[in-house]
Amino acid sequence: MRPDCPAMAVPVEQVRRRKARDWSPGHGSPPQPERNPAGCPAHLRAGTFWLTRIVLLRALAFVYFVAFLVAFHQNKQLIGDRGLLPCKAYLKSVQQHFQGRVSWDAVSYAPTILWLLDWSHMDSNLDALALLGLGISFFILVTGCANMVLMAVLWVLYMSLVNVGQIWYSFGWESQLLETGFLGIFLCPLWTLSRLPRKTPPPQIVLWGFRWLIFRIMLGAGLIKIRGDRCWQDLTCMDFHYETQPVPNPVAYFLHRSPWWVHRFETLSNHFLELVVPFFIFLGRRMCILHGALQILFQVVLIISGNLSFLNWLTIIPSVACFDDATLGFLFPSGPGSLKDQVLKMQKEKARGAWPTLRYGPGCMVRQTVNLALGVLVAWLSIPVVFNLLSPKQVMNSSFNPLRIVNTYGAFGSITRERTEIILQGTASPNASAPDAIWEDYEFKCKPGDLRRRPCLISPYHHRLDWLMWFAAFQTYEQHEWVIHLAGKLLANDAKALSLLALNPFADRAPPR
Question: Where is this region: Disordered (predicted)?
Protein backbone atom coordinates (compact mmCIF):
# COMPACT_ATOMS: atom_id res chain seq x y z
CA MET A 1 0.00 0.00 0.00
CA ARG A 2 1.37 3.46 -0.96
CA PRO A 3 2.00 5.99 1.86
CA ASP A 4 -0.51 8.42 0.35
CA CYS A 5 -3.31 5.83 0.35
CA PRO A 6 -6.46 7.15 2.16
CA ALA A 7 -6.39 4.21 4.53
CA MET A 8 -3.07 5.39 5.86
CA ALA A 9 -4.56 8.75 6.74
CA VAL A 10 -6.74 7.30 9.52
CA PRO A 11 -5.26 8.29 12.91
CA VAL A 12 -3.51 5.43 14.67
CA GLU A 13 -5.31 6.07 17.97
CA GLN A 14 -8.69 5.90 16.21
CA VAL A 15 -7.75 2.52 14.70
CA ARG A 16 -6.64 1.22 18.10
CA ARG A 17 -9.90 2.35 19.73
CA ARG A 18 -11.91 0.72 16.98
CA LYS A 19 -10.02 -2.58 17.36
CA ALA A 20 -10.40 -2.49 21.10
CA ARG A 21 -14.15 -1.91 20.73
CA ASP A 22 -14.49 -4.71 18.15
CA TRP A 23 -12.47 -7.21 20.22
CA SER A 24 -13.99 -6.53 23.62
CA PRO A 25 -15.14 -9.54 25.64
CA GLY A 26 -18.70 -8.31 25.34
CA HIS A 27 -18.62 -9.04 21.63
CA GLY A 28 -17.71 -12.71 22.19
CA SER A 29 -14.19 -12.46 20.78
CA PRO A 30 -11.64 -15.14 21.67
CA PRO A 31 -9.10 -14.32 24.39
CA GLN A 32 -5.72 -13.14 23.20
CA PRO A 33 -2.33 -14.52 24.19
CA GLU A 34 -0.63 -12.98 27.19
CA ARG A 35 1.43 -9.93 26.26
CA ASN A 36 4.05 -7.95 28.09
CA PRO A 37 3.82 -4.17 28.53
CA ALA A 38 5.69 -3.60 25.27
CA GLY A 39 2.92 -5.35 23.35
CA CYS A 40 4.92 -8.45 22.43
CA PRO A 41 3.75 -11.96 23.28
CA ALA A 42 5.00 -12.97 26.72
CA HIS A 43 7.81 -15.52 26.83
CA LEU A 44 8.01 -18.59 29.02
CA ARG A 45 10.17 -18.25 32.09
CA ALA A 46 13.16 -20.43 32.85
CA GLY A 47 13.14 -23.05 35.56
CA THR A 48 10.04 -25.11 34.80
CA PHE A 49 9.96 -28.38 32.83
CA TRP A 50 6.34 -29.01 31.85
CA LEU A 51 7.03 -28.94 28.12
CA THR A 52 10.31 -30.75 28.68
CA ARG A 53 8.40 -33.69 30.12
CA ILE A 54 6.17 -33.88 27.04
CA VAL A 55 9.19 -33.93 24.72
CA LEU A 56 10.94 -36.54 26.87
CA LEU A 57 7.91 -38.83 26.96
CA ARG A 58 7.26 -38.59 23.23
CA ALA A 59 10.91 -39.20 22.38
CA LEU A 60 11.07 -42.19 24.73
CA ALA A 61 7.80 -43.56 23.32
CA PHE A 62 9.22 -43.27 19.79
CA VAL A 63 12.28 -45.36 20.67
CA TYR A 64 10.13 -47.88 22.52
CA PHE A 65 7.89 -48.12 19.45
CA VAL A 66 10.86 -48.85 17.18
CA ALA A 67 12.28 -51.40 19.65
CA PHE A 68 8.99 -53.27 19.92
CA LEU A 69 8.54 -53.11 16.13
CA VAL A 70 11.93 -54.79 15.68
CA ALA A 71 10.92 -57.37 18.28
CA PHE A 72 7.61 -58.11 16.55
CA HIS A 73 9.25 -58.57 13.15
CA GLN A 74 12.28 -60.61 14.25
CA ASN A 75 11.77 -62.33 17.62
CA LYS A 76 10.01 -65.40 16.26
CA GLN A 77 12.89 -66.07 13.85
CA LEU A 78 15.58 -65.41 16.46
CA ILE A 79 14.24 -66.66 19.82
CA GLY A 80 10.86 -68.20 18.96
CA ASP A 81 9.82 -71.85 19.06
CA ARG A 82 11.87 -72.63 15.94
CA GLY A 83 14.25 -69.70 16.21
CA LEU A 84 18.02 -69.69 15.89
CA LEU A 85 18.37 -69.58 19.70
CA PRO A 86 14.96 -70.46 21.20
CA CYS A 87 14.25 -68.60 24.43
CA LYS A 88 12.30 -71.64 25.66
CA ALA A 89 15.51 -73.67 25.67
CA TYR A 90 17.31 -70.79 27.40
CA LEU A 91 14.71 -70.56 30.18
CA LYS A 92 14.87 -74.34 30.66
CA SER A 93 18.65 -74.14 31.04
CA VAL A 94 18.28 -71.39 33.65
CA GLN A 95 15.66 -73.48 35.42
CA GLN A 96 17.94 -76.56 35.47
CA HIS A 97 20.81 -74.45 36.78
CA PHE A 98 18.67 -73.63 39.82
CA GLN A 99 17.64 -77.22 40.72
CA GLY A 100 15.05 -77.57 37.98
CA ARG A 101 12.31 -75.33 39.35
CA VAL A 102 11.12 -71.77 38.85
CA SER A 103 12.60 -70.37 42.04
CA TRP A 104 13.26 -66.81 43.10
CA ASP A 105 16.91 -67.32 42.15
CA ALA A 106 15.92 -68.27 38.60
CA VAL A 107 13.54 -65.33 38.26
CA SER A 108 16.09 -62.84 39.64
CA TYR A 109 18.75 -64.23 37.28
CA ALA A 110 16.52 -63.70 34.23
CA PRO A 111 13.63 -61.37 35.18
CA THR A 112 10.88 -61.86 32.61
CA ILE A 113 7.14 -62.32 32.72
CA LEU A 114 7.59 -65.29 30.37
CA TRP A 115 8.12 -67.35 33.52
CA LEU A 116 4.40 -66.90 34.18
CA LEU A 117 3.18 -67.81 30.67
CA ASP A 118 2.59 -71.06 28.79
CA TRP A 119 5.81 -72.07 27.05
CA SER A 120 4.07 -74.34 24.54
CA HIS A 121 3.15 -71.27 22.45
CA MET A 122 6.26 -69.12 22.80
CA ASP A 123 5.79 -67.43 19.42
CA SER A 124 2.38 -66.17 20.53
CA ASN A 125 3.83 -64.99 23.86
CA LEU A 126 6.58 -63.02 22.11
CA ASP A 127 4.11 -61.47 19.70
CA ALA A 128 1.76 -60.53 22.54
CA LEU A 129 4.51 -58.73 24.45
CA ALA A 130 5.65 -56.87 21.34
CA LEU A 131 2.13 -55.89 20.25
CA LEU A 132 1.18 -54.64 23.71
CA GLY A 133 4.37 -52.57 23.79
CA LEU A 134 3.63 -51.20 20.33
CA GLY A 135 0.12 -50.16 21.35
CA ILE A 136 1.12 -48.39 24.56
CA SER A 137 4.13 -46.61 23.04
CA PHE A 138 2.06 -45.46 20.06
CA PHE A 139 -0.57 -43.99 22.40
CA ILE A 140 2.07 -42.03 24.35
CA LEU A 141 3.79 -40.91 21.14
CA VAL A 142 0.57 -39.51 19.70
CA THR A 143 -0.94 -37.97 22.82
CA GLY A 144 2.22 -36.86 24.67
CA CYS A 145 0.77 -37.97 28.00
CA ALA A 146 1.50 -40.98 30.18
CA ASN A 147 1.32 -42.16 33.76
CA MET A 148 3.54 -44.34 35.90
CA VAL A 149 1.45 -47.42 35.18
CA LEU A 150 1.85 -47.22 31.40
CA MET A 151 5.56 -46.43 31.60
CA ALA A 152 6.13 -49.28 34.06
CA VAL A 153 4.31 -51.70 31.74
CA LEU A 154 6.53 -50.65 28.83
CA TRP A 155 9.63 -51.16 30.96
CA VAL A 156 8.55 -54.60 32.20
CA LEU A 157 7.62 -55.72 28.69
CA TYR A 158 10.95 -54.74 27.18
CA MET A 159 12.95 -56.08 30.11
CA SER A 160 11.12 -59.39 29.65
CA LEU A 161 12.37 -59.55 26.05
CA VAL A 162 15.90 -58.39 26.76
CA ASN A 163 16.46 -60.99 29.49
CA VAL A 164 15.58 -63.89 27.17
CA GLY A 165 17.05 -62.34 24.01
CA GLN A 166 20.48 -63.84 24.69
CA ILE A 167 23.14 -62.69 22.21
CA TRP A 168 20.57 -60.91 20.02
CA TYR A 169 19.87 -58.46 22.86
CA SER A 170 23.39 -58.23 24.24
CA PHE A 171 24.24 -54.69 23.16
CA GLY A 172 24.55 -51.50 25.12
CA TRP A 173 21.46 -49.81 23.73
CA GLU A 174 19.21 -52.47 25.24
CA SER A 175 20.43 -51.69 28.77
CA GLN A 176 20.38 -47.98 27.94
CA LEU A 177 16.73 -48.15 26.89
CA LEU A 178 15.84 -49.98 30.12
CA GLU A 179 17.66 -47.39 32.25
CA THR A 180 16.08 -44.51 30.33
CA GLY A 181 12.67 -46.16 30.55
CA PHE A 182 13.04 -46.76 34.28
CA LEU A 183 13.65 -43.05 34.86
CA GLY A 184 10.68 -42.28 32.60
CA ILE A 185 8.37 -44.12 35.01
CA PHE A 186 9.01 -41.56 37.75
CA LEU A 187 8.63 -38.60 35.40
CA CYS A 188 4.84 -39.10 35.35
CA PRO A 189 1.89 -38.95 37.75
CA LEU A 190 0.65 -42.24 39.11
CA TRP A 191 -2.78 -42.40 37.39
CA THR A 192 -3.51 -39.10 35.68
CA LEU A 193 -3.38 -39.06 31.88
CA SER A 194 -2.74 -35.42 31.08
CA ARG A 195 -0.01 -33.60 29.23
CA LEU A 196 0.03 -30.96 31.97
CA PRO A 197 -0.90 -32.64 35.28
CA ARG A 198 -0.94 -29.55 37.49
CA LYS A 199 -0.54 -31.50 40.74
CA THR A 200 2.54 -33.41 39.53
CA PRO A 201 5.30 -31.16 38.22
CA PRO A 202 8.31 -32.97 36.72
CA PRO A 203 10.52 -34.04 39.67
CA GLN A 204 13.97 -32.47 39.75
CA ILE A 205 15.48 -35.74 40.96
CA VAL A 206 14.32 -37.47 37.76
CA LEU A 207 15.63 -34.67 35.54
CA TRP A 208 18.99 -34.97 37.26
CA GLY A 209 18.75 -38.73 36.79
CA PHE A 210 18.56 -38.17 33.02
CA ARG A 211 21.49 -35.74 33.16
CA TRP A 212 23.52 -38.22 35.20
CA LEU A 213 22.73 -40.83 32.54
CA ILE A 214 23.95 -38.75 29.59
CA PHE A 215 27.03 -37.75 31.59
CA ARG A 216 27.97 -41.41 32.10
CA ILE A 217 27.15 -42.38 28.51
CA MET A 218 29.38 -39.74 26.98
CA LEU A 219 32.22 -39.87 29.51
CA GLY A 220 32.25 -43.68 29.37
CA ALA A 221 32.46 -43.60 25.58
CA GLY A 222 35.30 -41.08 25.71
CA LEU A 223 37.34 -42.89 28.36
CA ILE A 224 37.06 -46.29 26.65
CA LYS A 225 38.53 -44.73 23.51
CA ILE A 226 41.43 -43.04 25.27
CA ARG A 227 42.23 -46.29 27.11
CA GLY A 228 41.63 -48.46 24.07
CA ASP A 229 42.88 -48.37 20.50
CA ARG A 230 45.97 -46.26 19.92
CA CYS A 231 44.41 -44.75 16.80
CA TRP A 232 42.22 -42.62 19.08
CA GLN A 233 45.37 -41.04 20.48
CA ASP A 234 47.13 -40.47 17.15
CA LEU A 235 43.82 -39.23 15.66
CA THR A 236 43.66 -41.78 12.82
CA CYS A 237 40.62 -43.87 13.87
CA MET A 238 38.23 -42.03 11.59
CA ASP A 239 40.39 -43.01 8.61
CA PHE A 240 38.91 -46.50 9.02
CA HIS A 241 35.66 -46.19 10.99
CA TYR A 242 33.23 -45.39 8.18
CA GLU A 243 34.38 -48.38 6.13
CA THR A 244 34.67 -50.92 8.94
CA GLN A 245 31.63 -50.02 11.09
CA PRO A 246 29.06 -52.82 11.47
CA VAL A 247 26.45 -51.63 8.96
CA PRO A 248 27.55 -48.64 6.83
CA ASN A 249 24.99 -46.41 5.11
CA PRO A 250 25.24 -44.49 1.80
CA VAL A 251 26.64 -41.35 3.47
CA ALA A 252 29.46 -43.39 5.05
CA TYR A 253 30.73 -44.12 1.54
CA PHE A 254 31.41 -40.44 0.96
CA LEU A 255 32.58 -39.62 4.50
CA HIS A 256 35.20 -42.35 4.20
CA ARG A 257 36.70 -40.43 1.26
CA SER A 258 37.00 -37.13 3.13
CA PRO A 259 40.44 -35.47 3.25
CA TRP A 260 42.78 -36.60 6.03
CA TRP A 261 42.45 -33.32 7.91
CA VAL A 262 38.67 -33.79 8.11
CA HIS A 263 39.20 -37.16 9.82
CA ARG A 264 41.63 -35.56 12.29
CA PHE A 265 39.08 -32.85 13.09
CA GLU A 266 36.38 -35.50 13.56
CA THR A 267 38.50 -37.41 16.07
CA LEU A 268 39.43 -34.28 18.02
CA SER A 269 35.79 -33.18 18.08
CA ASN A 270 34.80 -36.61 19.35
CA HIS A 271 37.24 -36.33 22.26
CA PHE A 272 35.99 -32.83 23.11
CA LEU A 273 32.33 -33.85 23.04
CA GLU A 274 32.84 -37.03 25.07
CA LEU A 275 35.52 -35.97 27.55
CA VAL A 276 34.99 -32.23 28.13
CA VAL A 277 31.40 -31.26 27.24
CA PRO A 278 29.74 -33.69 29.74
CA PHE A 279 31.02 -31.56 32.63
CA PHE A 280 29.03 -28.59 31.28
CA ILE A 281 25.98 -30.15 32.94
CA PHE A 282 27.20 -29.04 36.37
CA LEU A 283 28.11 -25.46 35.40
CA GLY A 284 24.73 -23.74 35.51
CA ARG A 285 21.70 -23.40 33.26
CA ARG A 286 23.35 -21.85 30.21
CA MET A 287 26.20 -24.34 30.10
CA CYS A 288 23.76 -27.21 30.65
CA ILE A 289 21.71 -25.99 27.67
CA LEU A 290 24.90 -25.75 25.62
CA HIS A 291 25.74 -29.32 26.62
CA GLY A 292 22.33 -30.55 25.49
CA ALA A 293 22.55 -28.74 22.15
CA LEU A 294 26.06 -30.05 21.41
CA GLN A 295 25.23 -33.62 22.34
CA ILE A 296 22.06 -33.65 20.24
CA LEU A 297 23.98 -32.21 17.28
CA PHE A 298 26.64 -34.90 17.80
CA GLN A 299 24.03 -37.68 17.82
CA VAL A 300 22.41 -36.32 14.66
CA VAL A 301 25.79 -36.44 12.89
CA LEU A 302 26.24 -40.05 14.04
CA ILE A 303 22.75 -40.94 12.79
CA ILE A 304 23.62 -39.52 9.39
CA SER A 305 26.94 -41.37 9.20
CA GLY A 306 25.88 -44.97 9.93
CA ASN A 307 23.20 -47.50 10.82
CA LEU A 308 23.73 -47.78 14.57
CA SER A 309 20.27 -49.10 15.41
CA PHE A 310 18.29 -46.73 17.66
CA LEU A 311 21.36 -46.04 19.83
CA ASN A 312 21.86 -42.41 18.84
CA TRP A 313 18.13 -41.66 18.83
CA LEU A 314 18.00 -43.05 22.36
CA THR A 315 21.04 -41.01 23.46
CA ILE A 316 19.27 -37.80 22.45
CA ILE A 317 16.55 -38.41 25.08
CA PRO A 318 18.51 -37.72 28.30
CA SER A 319 20.06 -34.66 26.64
CA VAL A 320 16.56 -33.17 26.40
CA ALA A 321 16.52 -32.95 30.21
CA CYS A 322 19.07 -30.13 29.91
CA PHE A 323 16.41 -27.84 28.42
CA ASP A 324 13.65 -26.08 30.36
CA ASP A 325 10.33 -24.75 29.08
CA ALA A 326 11.85 -21.41 28.05
CA THR A 327 14.30 -23.26 25.80
CA LEU A 328 11.86 -25.74 24.26
CA GLY A 329 8.95 -23.32 23.86
CA PHE A 330 9.69 -22.84 20.16
CA LEU A 331 8.67 -26.48 19.53
CA PHE A 332 5.08 -25.78 20.59
CA PRO A 333 2.46 -23.60 18.87
CA SER A 334 1.34 -20.39 20.52
CA GLY A 335 -2.18 -19.10 20.90
CA PRO A 336 -5.02 -19.08 23.40
CA GLY A 337 -5.45 -22.41 25.12
CA SER A 338 -2.26 -23.88 23.68
CA LEU A 339 0.13 -25.88 25.85
CA LYS A 340 2.55 -22.99 25.85
CA ASP A 341 -0.20 -20.60 26.94
CA GLN A 342 -1.26 -22.95 29.76
CA VAL A 343 2.33 -23.26 31.02
CA LEU A 344 2.70 -19.48 30.93
CA LYS A 345 -0.45 -19.07 33.04
CA MET A 346 0.83 -21.64 35.56
CA GLN A 347 4.14 -19.79 35.77
CA LYS A 348 2.33 -16.50 36.45
CA GLU A 349 0.10 -18.12 39.06
CA LYS A 350 3.15 -19.44 40.84
CA ALA A 351 4.86 -16.05 40.65
CA ARG A 352 1.77 -14.40 42.22
CA GLY A 353 1.62 -17.05 44.93
CA ALA A 354 -1.70 -18.34 43.63
CA TRP A 355 -0.32 -21.80 42.91
CA PRO A 356 -2.13 -24.50 44.95
CA THR A 357 0.25 -26.04 47.46
CA LEU A 358 -0.11 -29.68 48.48
CA ARG A 359 3.18 -29.86 50.26
CA TYR A 360 1.77 -31.60 53.29
CA GLY A 361 -0.97 -33.67 51.65
CA PRO A 362 -0.72 -37.48 51.83
CA GLY A 363 -0.30 -37.79 48.05
CA CYS A 364 2.50 -35.25 48.01
CA MET A 365 4.28 -36.95 50.90
CA VAL A 366 4.13 -40.30 49.09
CA ARG A 367 5.46 -38.69 45.93
CA GLN A 368 8.34 -37.04 47.76
CA THR A 369 9.17 -40.34 49.47
CA VAL A 370 9.21 -42.15 46.12
CA ASN A 371 11.44 -39.49 44.58
CA LEU A 372 13.82 -39.67 47.53
CA ALA A 373 13.93 -43.47 47.30
CA LEU A 374 14.67 -43.21 43.57
CA GLY A 375 17.57 -40.84 44.23
CA VAL A 376 19.03 -43.12 46.90
CA LEU A 377 18.64 -46.18 44.64
CA VAL A 378 20.35 -44.55 41.66
CA ALA A 379 23.15 -43.22 43.88
CA TRP A 380 23.71 -46.65 45.45
CA LEU A 381 23.72 -48.48 42.10
CA SER A 382 26.04 -45.83 40.64
CA ILE A 383 28.88 -46.72 43.02
CA PRO A 384 30.27 -49.68 41.01
CA VAL A 385 29.59 -47.77 37.78
CA VAL A 386 31.73 -44.84 38.96
CA PHE A 387 34.50 -47.19 40.08
CA ASN A 388 34.36 -48.77 36.63
CA LEU A 389 34.70 -45.34 34.99
CA LEU A 390 37.77 -44.58 37.08
CA SER A 391 39.35 -48.00 36.54
CA PRO A 392 42.11 -48.42 33.92
CA LYS A 393 40.43 -51.78 33.16
CA GLN A 394 37.13 -50.12 32.31
CA VAL A 395 34.37 -52.44 31.07
CA MET A 396 31.79 -51.00 28.69
CA ASN A 397 28.13 -51.89 28.12
CA SER A 398 27.76 -53.98 31.27
CA SER A 399 25.16 -54.22 34.02
CA PHE A 400 25.75 -54.84 37.71
CA ASN A 401 22.13 -55.81 38.40
CA PRO A 402 19.63 -57.98 36.48
CA LEU A 403 17.11 -55.13 36.22
CA ARG A 404 19.69 -52.96 34.39
CA ILE A 405 18.70 -49.80 36.24
CA VAL A 406 22.20 -48.22 36.24
CA ASN A 407 24.75 -49.49 33.71
CA THR A 408 28.13 -48.84 32.14
CA TYR A 409 28.39 -47.59 28.58
CA GLY A 410 30.92 -47.12 25.81
CA ALA A 411 31.36 -47.56 22.08
CA PHE A 412 34.12 -48.29 19.57
CA GLY A 413 36.95 -48.66 22.04
CA SER A 414 38.84 -50.39 19.23
CA ILE A 415 38.63 -49.84 15.48
CA THR A 416 39.29 -52.53 12.88
CA ARG A 417 41.55 -51.47 10.00
CA GLU A 418 40.25 -53.98 7.46
CA ARG A 419 36.73 -55.14 6.80
CA THR A 420 36.15 -58.90 6.88
CA GLU A 421 32.79 -59.99 5.53
CA ILE A 422 31.08 -63.36 5.91
CA ILE A 423 29.41 -64.52 2.71
CA LEU A 424 26.96 -67.41 2.91
CA GLN A 425 26.66 -69.53 -0.24
CA GLY A 426 24.77 -72.64 -1.29
CA THR A 427 25.13 -75.11 -4.12
CA ALA A 428 22.82 -77.58 -5.83
CA SER A 429 25.74 -79.47 -7.38
CA PRO A 430 25.85 -83.17 -6.43
CA ASN A 431 29.56 -82.85 -5.67
CA ALA A 432 30.20 -79.65 -3.76
CA SER A 433 33.97 -80.16 -4.01
CA ALA A 434 33.99 -80.41 -7.80
CA PRO A 435 35.74 -77.55 -9.64
CA ASP A 436 32.62 -76.91 -11.73
CA ALA A 437 30.29 -76.68 -8.70
CA ILE A 438 28.22 -73.48 -8.83
CA TRP A 439 27.95 -71.62 -5.53
CA GLU A 440 25.25 -68.98 -5.20
CA ASP A 441 25.23 -66.12 -2.67
CA TYR A 442 22.58 -65.40 -0.04
CA GLU A 443 22.04 -61.67 0.43
CA PHE A 444 21.19 -60.06 3.76
CA LYS A 445 18.80 -57.14 4.11
CA CYS A 446 21.43 -54.65 5.21
CA LYS A 447 24.76 -56.39 5.77
CA PRO A 448 27.25 -55.63 2.97
CA GLY A 449 27.50 -58.39 0.40
CA ASP A 450 27.09 -57.73 -3.31
CA LEU A 451 29.57 -54.94 -4.11
CA ARG A 452 27.19 -53.52 -6.72
CA ARG A 453 24.45 -52.95 -4.17
CA ARG A 454 24.04 -49.54 -2.54
CA PRO A 455 24.48 -49.58 1.28
CA CYS A 456 21.18 -49.54 3.16
CA LEU A 457 19.66 -46.72 5.20
CA ILE A 458 17.50 -48.07 8.04
CA SER A 459 18.27 -46.22 11.30
CA PRO A 460 16.55 -46.24 13.78
CA TYR A 461 15.31 -49.67 12.67
CA HIS A 462 17.67 -52.57 13.30
CA HIS A 463 18.37 -55.93 11.67
CA ARG A 464 19.76 -58.00 14.54
CA LEU A 465 21.07 -60.87 12.40
CA ASP A 466 22.95 -58.50 10.09
CA TRP A 467 24.58 -56.82 13.09
CA LEU A 468 25.70 -60.14 14.61
CA MET A 469 27.24 -61.22 11.30
CA TRP A 470 29.74 -58.37 11.70
CA PHE A 471 30.83 -59.74 15.08
CA ALA A 472 30.93 -63.32 13.81
CA ALA A 473 33.51 -62.25 11.21
CA PHE A 474 36.04 -61.64 14.01
CA GLN A 475 35.99 -65.30 15.07
CA THR A 476 35.25 -68.78 13.72
CA TYR A 477 31.86 -70.41 13.36
CA GLU A 478 32.59 -72.77 16.25
CA GLN A 479 32.46 -69.77 18.59
CA HIS A 480 29.00 -68.77 17.35
CA GLU A 481 26.50 -71.58 17.77
CA TRP A 482 23.76 -69.65 16.00
CA VAL A 483 25.76 -69.55 12.74
CA ILE A 484 25.57 -73.37 12.54
CA HIS A 485 21.85 -73.21 13.30
CA LEU A 486 21.41 -70.65 10.51
CA ALA A 487 23.29 -72.84 8.02
CA GLY A 488 21.12 -75.82 8.96
CA LYS A 489 17.93 -73.83 8.39
CA LEU A 490 19.17 -72.58 5.03
CA LEU A 491 19.87 -76.19 4.00
CA ALA A 492 16.20 -76.90 4.73
CA ASN A 493 14.89 -73.71 3.06
CA ASP A 494 13.30 -72.77 6.41
CA ALA A 495 10.77 -70.01 5.72
CA LYS A 496 11.20 -68.21 9.05
CA ALA A 497 14.99 -68.05 8.82
CA LEU A 498 14.83 -66.98 5.18
CA SER A 499 12.50 -64.10 6.13
CA LEU A 500 15.53 -62.50 7.81
CA LEU A 501 17.36 -62.41 4.45
CA ALA A 502 16.87 -60.26 1.36
CA LEU A 503 17.69 -62.86 -1.30
CA ASN A 504 17.36 -66.63 -1.30
CA PRO A 505 18.99 -68.00 -4.47
CA PHE A 506 17.05 -71.25 -3.97
CA ALA A 507 13.58 -69.71 -3.80
CA ASP A 508 10.99 -71.87 -5.60
CA ARG A 509 13.66 -74.54 -5.96
CA ALA A 510 14.93 -77.52 -4.04
CA PRO A 511 17.06 -76.62 -1.01
CA PRO A 512 20.83 -76.47 -1.50
CA ARG A 513 22.74 -79.70 -1.06
Answer: 15-38
